[in-house]
Amino acid sequence: MAKTAKHIIIGSTEAYSGKSATIIGLAAQAQAAGLSIAYGKPIGPLASDATDSDVTFIQETLALQPQQVHPTLVSLSADAVQRRVLGEDTQDYQAGLDQYQQCDSDLVLIEGPATLREGTLFDLSVAQIAQVLDAEVLLVFRYKPSTLIDDILAAQGQLGDRLCGVVINNLPEDQTDHVDEVIRPFLEAKGIPLYGVLPYNELLLSVSVKELVHQLDAEVLCRGDRLNLMVGTLKIGAMNVNSALKYFRKAHHMAVVTGGDRTDLQLAALETSTHCLILTGHIAPTPEVLQRADDLEVPILAVDLDTLTTVEIIERAFGQVRLHEAVKVQCIRELVAEGFDLPRLLEHLGVSVAAAV
Asked: 288 near 266, Cβ under 8 Å?
């Protein structure tokens, strides 16, 4: 007899809130408890290849079989939106959700769009997907003390009984007591279970040197074997060397952007916690710098961009961090295992762990 799968949508009210991380951690816990998992992402981002990359990554990370991964139904490219608005695309995308119903897993984790509004044009907003699949919604919120409560209450107003609970992500350590003593009781009194609290973690907000190479279209001048190093902060080298040393020593796991002609700053950066040197100005580093970087196993990148543009691209990369590194996946598993109350969620969903084992 086929199982009756429980569908739950992992959603958010803004992009980069931590949906994918929550899904990976939650799924890993559920699998460890003996539950079979299926996954799907009905709405993809701007480019279908990005969707394929993200979905493939989660499939591989969770060791899901092809039949446990449901298809992305539409990607939100400008062309797709225009065709829909002009009436050239009349496809019934909700019909595609039938494939999400055909499942022999205990739990189907559905990655929702970036916001509660996104996908409405294609009848695939979080609320619309939930209605079709009779699914509940778990929302992930980045901790923002001034707007968190308003955002959660507004989401409850939109989703009603479909909202089964929330996760607070990226919580600073000094706010833990406030969440436990003030926010949690308030939400629970409003009928909004707080299933998980995930702390701020510098590693999860970092970017690999490999990703920076990709984003900057950079040339790797040195230690191409060390592109797996993680960069947590960005520093710009544009001062005298004495000031630079004090500046660099305050940070850890840096990417330092400086001119190719600033040999003094490059050597200073290499004596601190630098994981990547990024050189601008079309000037090659000296043999001394290359040798020192090679000895210290620090990659050097050269970019065909000015400093301002380089910094903007790197800052954007920090704002859109991805999870495609094994070290991040392990970190996520540990954070969710410690900070997420899976038994309570499963009890609410009516999923029996004992029956799955």
From this structure: no
